[in-house]
User: Fold these one by one.
Assistant:
Number 1:
Amino acid sequence: MAFEEIKQSILEGDVDATPGLVRAELEAGADASTILSDALTAAMDEAGRRLSTGEMFIPEILFAADAMKAGLDIIKPLLLDDAQGMKGTVVIGGVKGDFHDIGKTLVAWMLEGAGFEVIDLGVDVPSETFLETAREHDADIVAMSTLMVTTMPMMEVNIKLVRAAGLDVKFILGGAPVSQTYADRAGADGYASDAPGAVALVRELMG
Amino acid sequence: MAGSLRIEPLTPSEISTMYEKCVQILTDHGVKVDHEKALEILGTAGALVDRDTHMVRFSRETIEWALAEVPKEVVYKGGDAKHDLLLPHPDRSFHTSTCIQSMLYHDPAANAFADVTHESYTEWCRLIENLPNIDICAIQTPMDVPAETADVHALNIQLQNTSKPLAILAYCLESVPYLFELLLARAGSAEALKDRPLAAIHPTALSPLVFKEMDLETIILACRYAVPIAPASLVMSGGTGPITIPGTAVLVAAEIVAMIVMAQLMCPGLPALPCVYNYGLDMSTGNALMTSPENLLAQATGAQFLKEAFALPVWVSSMGGDSYVSDGQMVAGKNLQSAMCAMAGTDINYGAGRLGGSNLASPVQLLIDDRMVANVKRVIAGVEVNEDTLALDTILTAGSGGHYLRQRHTRDHCRDAVRPDLFVADPLDTWQEKGSKDLYARAVDAYEEARRDLAPLSLPEDVKREMDSIVKRADEHLVP
């Protein structure tokens, strides 16, 4: 029942109330990993479902993600003590030459809301920065976006660069001109046409 | 500016001139009335009646007295108060009526037209009951019942399957009393019917300037039972009316005002909802066109003229079409026409579900029109400017290069926008995954979904029995 309250608070995007509800559960004896899986992640799963059915809109999802993160901040130290960290690490950025930000940022926010560690490199990201950041953070996924056909080839360049360096990392692509066909040709592991699709894809690739 | 957007095809001076022409037609020429009893009533009440020619003229004083008597505000009531319609629309928006008298429905499964039947019209009425933007259920023509009593059967179907306000009309003189008997049976008593008339009934001019026996009988009985009339003029520009737009509008108004004056002479205070249903005659083919540019403008002009010259709620045929399928031409025409007429002052947009011509309809088109109405209503509502909508604080908070998706202001307003499901575009990949369906195909899916959730009204058994017995009696008396 209390987990339901946390979920409801997150779905309502209540950043102020969610930490208190999480704290109360911890004090009542619930363990952090259960709160993470059964309340925080479950709430964002439900938010993702509602987004896909049109029951929730993007701004509401982002407020839900903020509320989820506010709750996560309470349990994060306990999760680390238990060696139960985040679900995985995603390095995300817009490729060199492209300055479009909002779609990429939306994906980053939603991945954070879904419980992933996200390193957002911003836009106009040089190839070497993708490589170095992925290596430094032992990334599981590198997510790249572009809104311009002219900068699309950078995606393939980046994939080849990182793979040549021997990193065990998966690539996902997105952005208006990108397609599954292009993603296959560029050697990526996946493609998503929107933010909820990107979250689902990352989950799938993380097994 | 907040409130309803407006277009004004006519200036106040032009409206004044047209009003005078309209009055002149009724004072100098008059109208032909083919109903002996009505001639007697009208003569006694002050109209100038020639019993030999059946011509009836009205003095300016009588016309203006009648126009003063007719209510300027009307509550158009159906079977359930939750569907009551305030006229004029309180938000300067509009209500929506389905099309009338269809004899053929387009069957999406067979991709062919099929006779309207008792069963398919029943489904149509139940669909209307559930559609959020369709407010008025108009009578149609079931073809599997006797032709002589099709209107009686149809009204019985309406009354048993939707609680929304009805638009009805008689198909012949003899059936008129049965329509009122059905309304009376459904209401329970004369007083109850007076309080909640369930329908508005159309008397219709036989343009130009003739009124059939059936239509006068309709007015007489509407007066007796206090059922609002919806006097309709179907002038066809270039055929049964002038080819020019102002001339069409003047003739339409003259026919409608004649019916209003006759009704007020018989029953002062009877609500009347003028119906501008004119068409344009295609001078090449002889076909009657609804959404030619000329007719779009004619309808909008008629709407503004009736609304402003006579200060009455106006009902305009503004969702017709000239295509015979739910294609791009159909949607383009309906969209433009309904928006233009609404902006010209229409209180009821008529024709949802209509395909081309005067007797084709489509339940799939009805669903498309339902969503289209939501779009048009939003557009004509205009723009509200205040501190909140100016959003200066939010602009300063987001700053240079910031995002607005995560701003509280965005969240608070993210549901303001109208998003009719059939018109919202998915990303390309999603659209392809869903089968690359066009508007019509999506509407077919929506129709199949909608028809799974239909039910008759819950009416007392004795009321249903009484209504069925009236239909049976009509069949016995009117069918050879």
Number 2:
Amino acid sequence: MRDSERDEETKRRMDLFICESYFNFVKMHLLSHFCDHIRQFGNIPMYSTEFGQLAHKTQIKAGLRQSNKQDASRQIVQSYSRQHGIRMRLLNLESLRRCCADLSPDVVEQLDTTSTTTAPGIRRRMLKGCCDDVSNMADFSLVLRVSIQIICHGLIRYSRHNLPPERRLPEDPERLESLPVELLTQ
Amino acid sequence: MEIYDIHRARCTGALHFRNHRSRNDWVWVRRGTEDMYGALRGRLPAKLLALFKIRDYRCEDRVHCLAGVQFVTAVNSGRISDVHSLVTVQMKEDAREFAVVDIGTIPGPAHLIPEGDRRWIVNSRIDLRTFNEVY
């Protein structure tokens, strides 16, 4: 296809796209109501459906497992109410402790062992897919297509700048090249 | 309850990925303090070249989990562009071919949009975490 034909085709498609496109659909229209809704009902995350899904898992499924499966709904509600009540009480006690209230030593000890706050998100790094062809620096260099000198230089540089003296990698290239290497191609 | 996101950063080195060309994803690497690299706040995108472990048998058989990366440099000291309000990065001709970092300094994958020859736009709108952390 020539350039002029291609330009014409592009122009024709753009014209079609412009005349056919519009933003008059529900999703876009709802955006215009957000401001009023927040003022009227509160913040949007309160109405998130994800909480419902989470509740199904933590309240209903866990509650059913704990029940004896006879008249389970009542036991689920009771179990959840009990857990909720204990959690509220623990939160109150922690709040009192922060205000330096006079709490008995066994309560303080119990509060230390029971955490009511959730731990911060943990970032896990999992390395997968060990490459069997690589066992030393020479194989590693061959697979990566990077010269062994460049790799050793990078390792020495990393070791000098990031590791404490007692944990540093050997700076002698021969000894460094003799270290076992495992390549992960995940 | 523990909630976490799974972000897969794939790296096949020079090997083929599913019978296609090799795959070397872009990742964020923490380098230096928050005031470095302008809007990138101490992070730099880098191309993941290799993920590897090296065992130092001289030192209590310690295993170092490392990554071989190739860094890009932030254009205009990491200031956001007036046109698209995103940061542009480039790979210089004389960029170091292979730098080694600890995998602990990789917070997650980065999304870069090719802009031209060895230039990319850093997409900070890819997810909420990136949006909050970067700029």
